[in-house]
Write a structure and sequence with these properties.
The structure is a single chain. β9 and β10 form a beta hairpin. The chain folds into 4 domains: 153 residues, no CATH class; 35 residues, no CATH class; 125 residues, CBS-domain (Roll); 90 residues, Uridine Diphospho-n-acetylenolpyruvylglucosamine Reductase, domain 3 (2-Layer Sandwich). It has a 6-stranded antiparallel sheet, covered by helices on one side. The protein starts with 6 loop residues before the first helix and ends with a strand. The chain is α+β, with helices and mostly antiparallel strands and 439 residues long. Helices cover 52% and strands 15% of the residues.
Length: 439
């Protein structure tokens, strides 16, 4: 081992630690600018924060940003390794090469990688704001090199027939994942409900109105050919403020009676029902196709300033009605008023099973109990059993699919009206539908 350490050694030592600091800068900047909150940066930029605007500008050109930071980090690592080797060879001779490898690896790993990146993960927003001006200079300085490297990489990809592209639709999936994570990590019921509401808002564009409609057999409708007194009596004894009116056939909807207009007409006629003109109490029916999404229908409700629509199929036949309240309930959950019945169609049993009306929707069950039942091909519990069993089951038959047991309790003709649903222990994969005892 050489015992002489000249003045050059100390300059080299200072240079080595300077390179380590530079490495720490590039590593922390890369982590901070990658993990920074886009929502907070956007809010700060909106408030006039110049550094937040700079951070957002850097992130928009992510290829140039990451390329410059990686180039700087790589350059620092190579230079520090070479300098450490020179220093330790002066002291230990040829053995200094091995010592330099160990020393430089430990130094870079701890002080230029793990420590700065850990700190950046804990404080990404504040660190990104502080480092953004210097990073912007580094990106500008290294841009010719990073551009050349990018073109070389693209050429290599094309040589092997690979076309690199930026994936689309990542933002919505990232937002969904963040909402799901927020909901899963909250112990307070109020915060869990917030997460469910946010997720429901994102689902509006993927759900069609037929999945939430009130089916025609449950719609209160009025025959236009009834005597005026009978029509008024039906309207006043109804719990709804808007009622479809049909003539000759329930598929032939000629209008929608508005309770407010009816009361005003009665007042103008001084309470004489014989003078009431039912036509003055009706609004023009608004027909919508079954393929309309909840998001589009919500926007249509806002534009038309109406709350009630009638859904028809491709042949013009009445399928059901959709109201503004139905869509809002998809976001905030059940909205009850003084006329609503408390029974929701789901009755939990002491043995852990649930007795469920056949018309209860899968979406409501998934949202209430976090079950995850599929609803692409059907919207209700009865529809699920019919589709998966591929038959019209009899009372007492039992089927098992999707880790649930479905027992048919009641039927009305070919319609399943009541089902007992028993959640089973979760299995790996999707179990095939199978028919059990009693079938």
């Amino acid at each position: 081992m050489k015992t002489v350490v000249n003045n050059t050694f100390w300059f080299e030592l200072v240079g080595l630690f300077f390179l380590v600091i530079c490495g720490a800068f590039f590593a922390s900047a890369e982590t901070a600018l990658t993990a920074v909150s886009r929502a907070r940066m956007h809010a700060l930029e909106t408030d006039g924060n110049a550094r937040a605007r700079l951070v957002n500008r850097l992130r928009k050109k992510k290829d140039s940003l990451i390329g410059a930071l990686l180039f700087g980090n790589t350059l620092v690592s190579i230079m520090s390794g070479a300098l450490a080797t020179m220093m330790l060879i002066e002291i230990f001779g040829d053995a200094g090469v091995a010592y330099a490898t160990i020393f430089d690896t430990a130094l870079i790993l701890v002080f230029a990688e793990v420590l700065p990146k850990t700190y950046a993960l804990v404080n990404p927003d504040n660190l990104a704001l502080r480092l953004a001006p210097v990073v912007a200079v580094a990106v500008a300085v290294f841009s010719p090199i990073t551009y050349a490297v990018t073109k070389v990489v693209e050429g290599i990809f094309l040589l092997f027939g690979v076309k690199p592209h930026v994936a689309t639709g990542e933002h919505e999936e990232e937002l969904r994942g963040a909402i799901q994570l927020f909901k899963a990590t909250q112990d307070i019921e109020e915060d869990q409900e917030k997460g469910a509401m946010l997720r429901s808002i994102l689902d509006l564009a993927d759900v069609q109105v037929e999945e939430i409609m009130v089916h025609r057999k449950n719609v209160r409708m009025i025959n236009a050919d009834l005597p005026v007194a009978n029509i008024i009596d039906e309207v006043l004894h109804s719990t709804f403020t808007r009622l479809p009116v049909w003539r000759e056939s329930p598929d032939n909807i000629v209008g929608v009676i508005n309770t407010k207009l009816l009361l005003n007409e009665i007042r103008l006629c001084n309470g004489d029902f014989s003078k009431v003109a039912i036509g003055n109490t009706m609004m023009e029916p608004w027909f919508i196709p079954e393929s309309t999404t909840l998001f589009d229908q919500l926007q249509a409700f806002r534009r038309r300033r109406e709350h009630f629509s009638i859904m028809v199929d491709e042949y013009g036949a009445l399928m059901g009605v959709v109201t503004l309240e139905d869509i809002l309930e998809e976001i905030v959950g059940e909205i009850s008023d003084e006329h609503d019945v408390a029974v929701t169609g789901v009755r939990p049993q002491p043995d852990g099973s649930y007795i469920i009306d056949g018309k209860v929707t899968i979406r409501d069950l998934n949202r209430e109990f976090d079950w995850g039942l599929p609803d692409e091909e059907y919207s209700t519990v009865a529809g699920l059993v019919l589709f998966e069993s591929q038959r019209i089951p009899a009372v007492g038959q039992t089927y098992t699919f999707f880790n649930f047991r479905f027992e048919i309790l009641k039927k009305q003709k070919n319609q399943i009206t009541m089902v007992r649903v028993i959640p089973l222990p979760k299995e790996t994969g999707r179990p095939e539908p199978k028919q059990e005892a009693g079938s």
